[in-house]
Request: fold
Amino acid sequence: MTILRRDLRAARIDSRPATRPEVEVKPDAFVSKTDLLSTLTKEHRQLDERLRQLDKQISMTAAERVEYCLLKKRKLLMKDRIARITAFA
Reply:
């Protein structure tokens, strides 16, 4: 899959994916490590599911290609955050 330069420009205009997972992690809330890990893992799974849905499509629109890239980045950030938390547990 190739991402065109114009698609990346469109991503800068609206960098939020069309569908966001329902789980939000609020940094101000006092949460135990176990709860935080379960929340992050749940969001990671939701991102993975959306990426699989997009992968199943025969072709993607420009907006879907941008969403795909943004979701992959967000999923990687979730994975890194989970790894950091488990490393210090």
